[in-house]
Amino acid sequence: MIASPVVILGARSDIGRALARGYAAKGAHVILAARGDIEADRRDLEVRSGGQPKAVAFDVTDGAPDAFFAGLGETPGTVVMVAGLLGDQDRSASDDAEAARVMATNYEGPARYLLAAARAMNGVEGGCIIGISSVAGERGRGSNYIYGSAKAGLTAFLSGLRNAQAKAGLHVMTVKPGFVATQMTAGMKLPPPLTAQPDEVAKAIIDAHEKRRDVIYVKARWRPVMAIIRAIPEGVFKKLSL
Amino acid sequence: MTAITGWGRYPRIEAEVTRPASIEAAARGEGLPRGNGRSYGDASLAPRAVDMMGLDRLVSFDDQTGLIVCEAGLMLSDLIDLMLPRGWFVPVTPGTKLVTIGGMVASDVHGKNHHGAGTFGEHVAWLDLALGDGRVLRCSRDENADLFAATIGGMGLTGIILTVAFAMIPVETAMVRQRRLRAPTLVHAFAAFEESLDWTYSVAWIDCLASGKDLGRSAILLGEHALAQELPAGAEPFARPAKGKKRVPIDMPGFVLGRLSVTAFNKLYYAAQRPGDMLVPIDPYFWPLDAILEWNRIYGRGGFVQYQCVLPIEASAAGYQQILAAIAAEGDASFLAVLKRMGPQGLGMLSFPMEGYTLALDFPANARNLALLDRLDAITVDHGGRIYLAKDARASVATIAAGYPRLDEFRDVRRRYGLDARFSSLLSERLHL
Predict the structure, then answer these.
(1) Which residues of chain A lie closer than 8 angstroms to B54, CB-CB?
(2) More confident residue, B295 or B60
(3) What is the mean pLDDT of the segment spanning A88-98?
(4) How far apart are CA B106 and CA B6, in angstroms?
């Protein structure tokens, strides 16, 4: 069961758009939350679904999460946190403001918004919170450990929130998409067997949501890949170019 | 930099590709607009390309008139999935649904109903075009009509198509009532087409390796959208049987499509085309090859070239005798050969179809076949015909100039709006469009 409304936080991203369409196609009432103008996406969803999707302004780093949920005018049934920022490792390592932005966008902001979501959703039947974390959070690598560490924080947060809310009946799901062909990764050379399309990610999330799974990889191949990466002894790992 | 090719995988270039996420960003885009890369040759290739695939939003739909307004990067497959269950279909569809609406306008695609419905461009009510200098103009038959006529079939060379409005057609089911005829020779095939002009859809699969008395041996498929009352009782009118998608896993070595194997295949295929009527689901009827993902790999790493020409009606019998004889005599096997009756020329300056017959077939890209295609060009030009830019990767400037009498008008529109300086492709450079 999918509890409406479904609030997509970060609805302008490729995954956010695909999720909005996927949920609307399931008949859910969708609320798009994004920075900037998303009227075109809201209208698209309206024409596609025949429903009445809403669009609201949202910035994961603005620091007023309770006010955001109070302003929705309805109690969310499902909240999906898609907002995130890959950033550039070299820039983040040399520029404190950039590092702060990556950390705030991938950990602090999402965690605070989802805490507020859990407060707002207190007692909602069939409620579900979904966080998009990352395989990058499973082990810090030289090439993206600032992003990765923030995602590690988010993964731990989601695990804790799931544990804390289990008795109250609020389901929490962690998603590790692996590589996804999106605007965020445009121009990067991604290995095709491990790279998912946004539509594929959305479908995997919605399927897993209906089955109330706890933690998912979008492509099953990531499970053994990450098991190997986690198993490499630190003494060897630190010398690899990863 | 990203390597990009057309669907024929020949030629290939390194390009700087940007991917706008909004209409506003696309209107500021610099470079050649590119959709799903399904034109076969070099039409979508340029050192700087604007990937339109992120612009796939619907803007409005009027369920009284069928008028739909959408962003140009919307995939036809997406639109069909969305609208067919509500009883709406596109007025014209090409042989694949893995194309964008903008690409359908730019190539002014035709379908099996061209003899009655014309090209896709004929159904476009208006479009918004970014000229690359900050201007965005609404173009239609009444407004900026010169740009409209240049953009329909304009191969992306008149600016970036942002939004398209066109009328969809109502259908009662997701099935086609198909009638199959066999034509033992080319003359029989022409006669069958001429007698079937009142059918909405018609197409022939032609065995290009048959020669002598069998030259032009074809299976002709006619079709009408099935009415609800024609379905078996209790059938779900818009159900589309889900077939597993097959993928060509590797580049095939050249011998797989050798002459002997294709000759045998074509013979069997022809024999299997028993005449008769049947109901066929819409997907295999219109888009049979979409079920085989990456079918272009069947031709191996060297890629392939698709050849499509059209000859005027009065020249078709003589011209195609020569063309088919040339292919049967010396061509490598062609996996696919399709013959189709076309209706009158439309409004697009570089629109391909003209009243007559079109033949489409493909060949592995090698020196021998390329030489054969030059001979086919000569026969086409001699008979007053032309070849299709969306499929071309190798024709000469002279062949194109001879086939497209409105080319100067097209060039003039490009010059007048400064588009020639801002939009070019390997195709336009090669053919001086």
Answers:
(1) 14, 183
(2) B60
(3) 94
(4) 15
Contacts of B5 (CB under 8 A, 6+ apart): B11, B12, B13, B37, B45, B303
Tell me, yes or no, if the two domains B2-171+408-420 and B175-403 fold the same way. Answer: no
Pairing of strands A215-217, A6-9: unpaired
Q: Per mean pLDDT, which range of A81-95, B70-84, B257-271 is the poorest?
A: B257-271
Of the candidates A81, A46, A42, the residue with the CA atom closest to the CA atom of residue A161: A81
User: Minimal Cα distance from B15: which residue of A?
Assistant: A187
Cβ–Cβ under 8 Å, residues B220 and B204: yes
- The CATH number for B175-403, chosen from 3.40.50.300, 3.30.70.2520, 3.40.30.10, 3.40.640.10, is 3.30.70.2520
Binary contact (B60, A43; C-beta < 8 A): yes
Tally Cβ neighbours within 10 Å of residue B71: 25
Q: Distance of alpha carbon A17 from its chain centroid, rounded?
A: 12
Q: Enumerate the domain spans of chain A.
A: 6-237
CA distance B353 to B355: 7
What is the pLDDT confidence band of residue B251, given thresholds at 50, 70 and 90? low
Does A40 contact B23 at a Cβ distance shorter than 8 Å? Answer: yes
Any B CB within 8 A of A188 CB? no
Contact A183 B19 (CB under 8 A): yes
pLDDT digits (tens, 9 = 90+) for B143-186: 999 999 999 999 999 999 999 999 999 999 999 999 999 999 99
- Give domain A6-237's CATH number out of 3.40.50.150, 3.40.50.720, 2.40.50.140, 3.40.1170.60: 3.40.50.720
Q: Given the structure tokens 């009158």, which residue do they identify?
A: B344
Which pLDDT does position B271 carry in this prediction? 65
Indicate the residue of B19, B23, B82 with minimum beta-carbon distance to A48: B82
Long-range contacts of B374-380 (CB under 8 A, 24+ apart): B375/B326, B376/B307, B376/B309, B376/B323, B376/B326, B376/B327, B377/B309, B379/B319, B379/B322, B379/B323, B379/B326, B380/B309, B380/B311, B380/B319, B380/B323
Classified by CATH at the fold level, domain B2-171+408-420 comes out as 3.30.465
DSSP state of B31: S
Give the CA angle between residues B329, B334, B340 to the nearest 5°.
Answer: 100
Helix (H/G/I), strand (E/B), else coil: B139 = strand
Residue type at position B209: L
What ranges do the domains of chain B cover?
Answer: 2-171+408-420, 175-403
Instruction: Using a pLDDT cut of 70, give the percent of chain A over it.
Output: 100
Model confidence pLDDT, tens digit, residues B291-324 = 776 666 666 666 777 899 999 999 999 999 999 8
Task: Give the mean model confidence (pLDDT) for residues B83-99.
Answer: 96
Write out chain B residues lying below 8 Å of A14, CB-based: 54
CA distance B349 to B257: 37
Q: What are phi and psi of A212, to 5 degrees?
A: 55, 50
Contact between residue B75 and residue B56 where contact means Cβ atoms under 8 Å apart: yes
pLDDT, position B259: 55
Average pLDDT in chain B: 90
Residue A186 contacts B where some CB pair is shorter than 8 Å: yes
- Do B48 and B423 touch, CB atoms closer than 8 A? no
Half-sphere exposure of B44 (CA within 13 A, CB side): 30
Cα(B11)–Cα(B37) distance, rounded to whole angstroms? Answer: 12
Chain B: closest CA distance from residue A199 (Å): 11
In the structure encoding, which two tokens stand for residue A10, read together? 């970060």
ipTM tops the 0.95 cut: no
Nearest CA in chain B to A24: B82
**Residues of A with catalytic function:** 147
